[in-house]
Amino acid sequence: MARAYDAIVVGAGINGASTAYHLRLLGLERVLLVEKGGIAAGGTGKSAAAVRQNYSTTLMARLAKKSIEQFMAMRQELGQDGGYVAAGYHMIVPADMVEGLERNLAVQRSVGVVTGFMGEDAIAARLPWLNREGVAAVTWEPEGGYADPVRATEAYVKAFAARGGEVRLKTPVRALTREGDRVSGILLDDGPLGAGFVVNAAGPWSHFLAQSAGIDLPMRTVREQDTVWEARANRPLPEATLAVAIDGLYVRPMGGLRYIVGRGFPKVYLDIDPYNYKETADDEFITDVMTRLEHRIPTFAGAKLIDSYAALYDVTPDWYPFIGPRRGLAGYCDMNGGSGHGFKFGPAFGHELARWMVTGEVAADFAQFSHDRIAAGRLFVQTFGGNRG
């Protein structure tokens, strides 16, 4: 098949958009970004878009730090900001998590993340809304915060198009095309398109796209619920993004009196069909979230429910993404399995994958994301939590 494009990226979520942009930035001439719906129409658009660097490995901490730097530089680099607000990030933990958290903070500081435990006086002064029952420690990460998932993705798509990239929205990809040990392109309703590389960034639908070309992609799709609340005025309320490990909650400001609130790890994950699932939140979930929230932050009592919805996680066997080419299969790259953490890493993931594709150079730690780790038996230890980001 003739190669109409140097690369085709399937999926205009944050990971696909960032990858397409960085491919053009690194000099690839003919790049197509194709999406079955609209920009950020899948999991990205419903992400809570909380951004933090609180991870237990140097790999994830450095990538989270790199992404935050890119979020902060979006207006200057892309011509449009992604709504990033460096409101800060707190992790609130019980006694049995303090020792592990101390080790994690050391890992984060080793790659330049500014973070640490708060003293008693600082907690009392800055978190007057917090019910301290069962609270052993609180961390503070000043550069963490949140972004607007749609605006951030649009910024990459617009910058990609401005640099000569081609964007096709509302264009379903029916299959990957394959010739022996090479993925040669994609099949659209109006026919095939050839490419030197195809990047599978289709999120929860990546498994089906890979399957169309006989490519194994072990990935689950699970349903994730979120709620949006409007608190009453003239009460002390959180200003930063929170992970409340004691209660299994995350709380993300939206500006004003509104907050996204969901359940964090540990929780039950139920596998679903991404083509047919309930997109509204369950009544039991809403009640449970509000009960936990009012207990930990009493000033939320009487808050008004504004919205509730369900989105999707694409989850790999070890909860770390599949990113990069595969041994023995030319012309194909994974960019999937974000497991609810994909948004915050999108800028860094896209940059590092594009560099790998264009130059053949890749950081040794980043190369571990390749699906090749499955055959080699080198799965990551599951250290991701369940906070949607």
Write a structural description.
With about 400 residues, the chain is α/β, with parallel strands linked by helices. It has two domains: about 5-50 and about 150-220 and about 320-375, FAD/NAD(P)-binding domain (3-Layer(bba) Sandwich), CATH 3.50.50; about 85-145 and about 220-315, 2-Layer Sandwich (D-Amino Acid Oxidase, Chain A, domain 2). The chain has helices at about 15-25, 60-70, 75-80, 100-110, 120-125, 150-160, 205-210, 285-295, 340-360, 365, 370-375; strands at about 5-10, 30-35, 50, 90-95, 115, 135-140, 145, 165-170, 175-180, 180-190, 190-200, 220-230, 240-245, 250-255, 260-265, 305-315, 320-325, 330-335. Strands 1, 2, 8, 9, 10, 11, 17 and 18 form an eight-stranded mixed sheet that branches.
SSE layout and pairing:
Blueprint: E1 3-10, H1 14-25, E2 31-34, E3 50-51, H2 58-72, H3 74-78, E4 89-93, H4 98-110, E5 116-117, H5 120-126, E6 137-140, E7 145-146, H6 149-162, E8 166-168, E9 175-179, E10 182-188, E11 191-200, H7 206-211, E12 220-230, E13 241-244, E14 249-255, E15 258-263, H8 283-296, E16 304-315, E17 322-326, E18 329-336, H9 342-359, H10 364-367, H11 372-376
